[in-house]
Task: structure prediction
Amino acid sequence: MMWRATGIAASMVLVACATMEDPAEDPIEGEATQALTGPTILKTGTSTARVLASSSTGPGLEIDGGKQLGSYLIAKYDGVRTSADVTADFTVTAETGAAFVYSLRGSGLGYSGKHLRVDRVPNSTTLRAGTPNGNVSCGTLPSNDATLVTIALATAAQRFDVLIDGAPTACTDLPTGIVGPIFGFEMMDASNDGYGGKVRFEGLAYP
Result:
């Protein structure tokens, strides 16, 4: 089943600061953010980020993540707070061996209620989505190639699809624990040993 108003999923647990949240950075219930703002960047170790010039399809960010244990970076973007269905698009170019995490940000309790996430792990070319039942392999996300990823979230139904270059993937009509309102997204270089590398995000579009 294909939802064409969309989002992302994730339930993978990462160590230490890899899933670090800062409640002070998140909009409070009822707060309306009228335009996409950010990024707010939290980082430690050798991980760095560089803001790219915005295009007609949205802003961009390049993360150069440190691969040693404990290096991490989170870049948060805030957008319109909405309980409607959400479509999030981004074009990603990941160098060989590089890993990344992209998450929609929600308003539920616990990690799964606040994050719907997709990722690529170190030395892999598979895009995965996190669900309450575990990670699902969506399809190939090749290295050194600009690849469009679309996440379509049916917010009330708590179901989502992931498309790669506009084509349906194995991640279709999957469950998610994220709870609306949805109010933005984030990209992360996780703190796990081996995570990192250079990843370029362009055309960051929401909702």
